[in-house]
Amino acid sequence: MSEVGALVSILFFLAILGFFATIAPAEYKILEPFDFFWLAGSFIGIAGTCAIATGLPCAGALAVVGVTTFLKYLVVGVEWFKSIVIIPIMVILIYLAVRIARGGG
Fold this sequence. Notes:
The protein is an all-alpha fold. It has 4 helices and no strands.
């Protein structure tokens, strides 16, 4: 599967989770709207940084997003179930964004 195909599959999965978040009761919601904004903002920020400036700025953007995600979901929020869903998806999205931004897609 190519990077673009994997990206489309993940985004389709996130769209399904977003739809379920609108119709599910509060106790069954996996992701909140802020989580989707966080994923989208992180993806756009990292893709933009890695496409415009490779090297240290790209690594810096990856580090900032990784540390803030870790702090938000595990240290401050203690949302273990969300972290099990969000962090792997975010790692895959970041990898795909960097690959596509650097011309590997």
